[in-house]
Specification:
single chain, alpha/beta, Rossmann fold, SH3 type barrels, Elongation Factor Tu (Ef-tu), domain 3, 3 domains, 17 strands
Length: about 350
């Protein structure tokens, strides 16, 4: 096949490229330049130059053509603006989920058209085709599994996708990189959001939204206990960084209109179950909702799955009730749905529910 391989300068996409090349496919590497110049100049680093050094070295080793696409403007409109708007509204965004949906398997697919049969990435996820339907299956490495980030893709997108390392563990990928002596074999994994790299999210938010003093209010009494620099720096369930003594204090809620952050010492008390929420903008990967009502869910990337029951409402929203509690439920978060080893899709949490 003729395959476009999205490379990042990391070990995962490098091994994916090498595997496809060795299998005899016609491979072209693509590096998507998404870093925004104004932020890089403000934050004082230029990580894509180091990434490109590794990308060029791996492509040279494997005699693969490299193309660099500048998607900065499109990325700003599709991902950066969404992230800032969500944070400003007091919600918790996940730009990595939308990056896969709108950029890697969205805009990029549109740009290459039908010239390439498939788009390959270094994601830890597997694809199966059953009765004409593409199914997204979890990786054998539960820690690295990235189906959560791919859960907003549809059938058309998955029909063009390839995940060459999806059946491997991270340890196996590292071992292959050493066997192939790839330039990236010892490079550490990147952390954080896809467009930030080593840049702290708080610094990114400060650059766009600045500081604005507001009250820290005890949730139960309404008493002001201190001040903060902007509600956008806080997430629901957060403990570290509240900055008050005699704690621990937890962030319970935020009010974007008054710039207030509500905190409590009793976040984990039994009268606060935090086990139900409402979901909207749902994407079912198969194209239709599952018949089962008992599913597993993830509300963040990681290996923990909640047992849950779901109910489709008349307005097409979804009510989710967890078997146990999760103290980090926040509007704006993506929740991914699973049935055993298969990811069924995802949606966006719009509010907590009292059950």
């Amino acid at each position: 096949m003729k395959i476009a391989v999205l490379v990042s300068g990391g070990v995962d996409s490098s091994v994916a490229l090498k595997l496809l090349k060795d299998q005899g496919h016609d491979v072209t590497a693509f590096y998507l330049k998404i870093w925004l110049e104004d932020e890089l100049s403000f934050l004082g680093s230029c990580p894509w130059e180091k990434d490109l050094e590794y990308v060029r070295a791996v492509c040279k080793q494997n005699n693969v053509l490299l193309e660099i696409l500048n998607l900065q403007k499109a990325y700003k409109e599709a991902i950066i603006s969404y992230t800032i708007d969500e944070v400003k509204a007091g919600r918790t965004p996940n730009p990595d989920v939308l990056c896969n949906n709108r950029i890697k398997f969205g805009l990029f697919l549109d740009q290459i058209g039908k010239e390439f049969d498939k788009v390959a990435t270094g994601h830890y996820a597997q694809l199966e085709k059953q009765n004409g339907i593409f199914k997204l299956k979890i990786s054998p490495d539960p820690i690295k599994d990235q189906t959560y980030f791919l859960s907003y893709l549809n059938q058309e997108q998955l029909s063009r996708a390839l995940f060459p390392i999806g059946n491997l563990t991270k340890a196996q990928v590292r071992e292959l990189a050493k066997q192939y002596n790839l330039a990236t074999k010892d490079r550490k994994d990147s952390q954080g959001l896809c467009f930030l790299g080593k840049i702290k999210f708080a610094d990114f938010i400060k650059h766009h939204l600045g500081d604005r003093s507001g009250p820290l209010i005890e949730f139960e009494t309404g008493i002001k206990l201190g001040e903060h620099s902007g509600y956008w720096y806080y997430t629901i369930g957060q403990r570290k960084g509240v900055g008050l003594s005699s704690g621990p204090w937890y962030v319970v809620s935020k009010d974007s209109k008054s710039n207030s952050v509500f905190i409590s010492k009793n976040y984990y008390s039994q009268d606060k179950p935090r086990n139900a929420f409402l979901v909207d903008q749902i994407n079912w990967i198969s194209g239709c909702a599952p018949q089962k009502t008992n599913l597993q869910v993830k509300i963040r990337h990681g290996n923990y799955l909640h047992e849950s029951s779901i109910k489709i409402n008349n307005d097409k929203t979804l009510s989710v009730t967890l078997k146990d509690r999760d103290q980090g439920i926040s509007s704006g978060q993506f929740v991914a749905f699973y049935d055993g080893n298969y990811c069924l899709g995802s949606g966006i949490i719009i509010q907590e529910l009292d059950v």
